[in-house]
Design brief:
The chain has 371 residues and is mainly α. The chain has a domain of 90 residues: Rna Polymerase Sigma Factor, Chain: A (Orthogonal Bundle). It is built from 15 helices and no strands. Helix 10 runs parallel beside helix 12. The radius of gyration is 22 Å and the shape is globular. The protein starts with a helix and ends in an 18-residue tail after the last helix.
Length: 371
């Protein structure tokens, strides 16, 4: 028997950590995105019913995957006997009863590359990844895109229909196609981390599960493409910011400004490892936007106190970044850096020059260095 509150907490925790894995596995085994999501939802509902009676399983993810897979198998069997909604699924690859030879990380990589297929608009790529891999609700995604919830629901339906009807393969693309798909994948992972680092909704200002999900997928991508320096740069950027997470909020969960954070709470080992990997990537060639942002984050991470921050170097890095990503938020961050390096008047003069209009709503803004 399990305490109800404890069970609800365990199910909520499992949703944060296991949703993407369960859905990714079911999409591979059924070929149907809607069926995968529905059966995953059924599995979590079953957990709320069974765990108070049977106890919380030792490996919640495995329990949830097994239940969801069995639900999918039952629905496919019913489809063969007349359930029109899943009649098409019944003709696809049957549910694989032996998952021992499939790596969960591979499933998640397959899912993100499928979500980021070039046949889909970039907005759809991002939204679909946030829905299927991170488990964000349609309402949460709509808020992130600044669109009404019904509009986002239609976009998600169209994206999944496009994958289904166009026969977009559920796979990591072959080597010759990896490069053309990488930028989209990096952008989606970046936005996923951003949503976790500064959540657009919910009670938590920092959603560690999304940060961890983005970091885990980025690490898997680096393993797949070790020579892709921008992938290394993005992973270093995420790890540098994540290393400060224990110092970003107070006991009440409120954000602490960067200059006021207790730097003894930062993970110095993680900072050193991230900087070492970034330096390795920089030695291999010209830096891209993710590497530059990681270098900016490193300037903050290595300063023993806020007053020791090298704002002159940060300004020079923003000069490079503005040339690559000339959107208002980057220019604003550069103005802040100039103000810190050369005085408030210099920074305010740059702010006054900024043109209104903002960035495209679907484009992930750089992770802000202020905290």
């Amino acid at each position: 028997m399990g305490d109800v509150t404890e069970v609800e907490s365990a199910v909520a925790g499992a949703f944060r950590t296991e949703w993407g894995r369960v859905v990714a596995t079911l999409i591979r085994t059924t070929g149907n995105w809607d069926l995968a999501e529905e059966c995953a939802q059924d599995a979590f509902a079953a957990a709320l019913e069974r765990w108070p009676v049977d106890g919380i399983p030792r490996t919640p993810g495995a329990w949830l995957t097994t239940v969801a897979r069995n639900r999918a198998l039952d629905r496919i069997k019913r489809a063969k006997t007349g359930d029109a909604k899943y009649q098409e699924v019944a003709t696809m690859t049957p549910v694989d009863q032996d998952d021992e030879h499939h790596d969960i990380e591979d499933d998640r990589l397959r899912l993100i590359f499928t979500c980021c297929h070039p046949a889909l608009p970039l907005e759809a790529q991002v939204a679909l990844t946030l829905r299927t891999l991170a488990g964000l609700t349609t309402a949460e995604i709509a808020r992130a895109f600044f669109v009404p919830e019904p509009t986002m629901a239609k976009r998600l339906v169209r994206a999944k229909s496009k994958i289904q009807n166009a026969g977009i393969p559920y796979r990591v693309p072959p080597a010759e196609l990896l490069a053309e798909r990488t930028n989209a994948v990096l952008g989606v992972l970046y936005l996923l981390f951003n949503e976790g680092y500064a959540a657009s909704s919910g009670d938590d200002l920092v959603r560690f599960n999304l940060c961890d999900e983005a970091i885990g997928l980025s690490a898997a991508l680096v393993d797949l493409m070790p020579d892709e320096t921008e992938a290394v740069g993005l992973l270093a950027l995420m790890r540098l910011h994540n290393a400060r997470r224990d110092g970003r909020t107070d006991a009440n969960g409120d954000l602490i400004p960067l200059e006021e954070q207790d730097r003894t709470n930062w993970n110095l080992d993680a900072i050193r490892d991230a900087i070492a990997s970034l330096e390795g990537a920089e030695r291999r060639g010209e830096r891209g936007a993710y590497q530059i942002q990681a270098a900016i984050a490193a300037c903050h991470a290595i300063a023993p106190v806020a007053a020791a921050t090298d704002w002159t170097r940060i300004t020079a890095l923003y000069d490079q970044l503005v040339g690559m990503v000339p959107i208002p938020v980057v220019r604003l961050n550069r103005a802040v850096a100039v103000g810190m390096a050369d005085g408030p008047e210099a920074g305010l003069a740059l702010v006054s020059e900024l043109v209104s209009g903002g960035r495209p709503r679907w484009l992930p803004a750089p992770i802000r260095h202020e905290g």
